[in-house]
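Lab notebook, bench 4. The sequencing result for the construct came back, and we need a structural model before the next group meeting so we can plan mutations. Quick request posted to the team channel:

Model the 3D structure of this chain.
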Amino acid sequence: MGHSMPLNNVTEFILIGLTQNPYLQKILFFVFLFIFLFTVLTNGFLFITISLSPALSAPMYFFLTFLSFVDAFYTCVTTPKMIIDLLFQRRNISFNSCLTQIFVEHLLGGSEIILLIVMAYDRYVAICKPLHYTTIMRPGICRLLVVVAWTGGLLHATVQIFFVVNLPFCGPNIIDHFMCDLFPLLKLACRDTHILGMVMAANSGAMCLLVFTMLLISYIVILNSLKSLGSEGRRKALSTCISHFTVVVLFFVPCIFTYTRPVATYSVDMLITVFFAILTPMFNPIIYTVRNTEVKNAMKNLFKKRVN
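Done. Here's the predicted structure in token form:
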């Protein structure tokens, strides 16, 4: 098999899916359909609420609209295909669709990582440098930080897809997963991908680990500086920080587990991916609204206006 051979011997992949049990497939179909609709609606509602509420004009909420957008978009990339596949025995995805799915997943995942750093930085400035907050986090800077998040996500996704796009695939074409991802795809390439796998793990895994450590340190600094605030200020700041940190943990722990290790697929991988790709985008709007009185009030006011 020479190097001149075209890599597109494989024009499509077959996804094994979550389960082969027909009864369980039907149950999961309704469970994930509910989760999908709930995720899109809650993130959409949070996005609209912040966009239309003058009371929520702080930078924190500006970043939160983008987080909601990323989460809603992310769930639309992975979940609908999985839901439809639960109804059919043949779960195929074309080669190009598979690569597109991986690219968009990493674009959104990379953007969200940077966005979570930006949101932590925003909280750090608000709590540790309150007098300079309005000058540091002015609208132009906030918009620039969002552009940086998208650009970083784009670069990360481009690097990841660049690794895969030139790999030769000559069969088998069965992916032991419910969606396309890098490691299951590497296992199918007809050449040794050990070194490549380590480079990819370094690109995604090291990024997750490094950022998570940075965020952990930043929250320790923030919590330490809360001592200087009054009890009301401390309560409010703590509430916001707990929301942020919960989202950070939900995002980074599965990310670190998936990408900071040699290329191997474990039986628990699919569960981790379900949590990471499907449940986390659902939790984020709940976490931010349940602990935030301003958002809850804005939602009530918006609802009253619509009803009236």
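The first strand starts at residue 12 and ends at 15.
Will bring this to the meeting.
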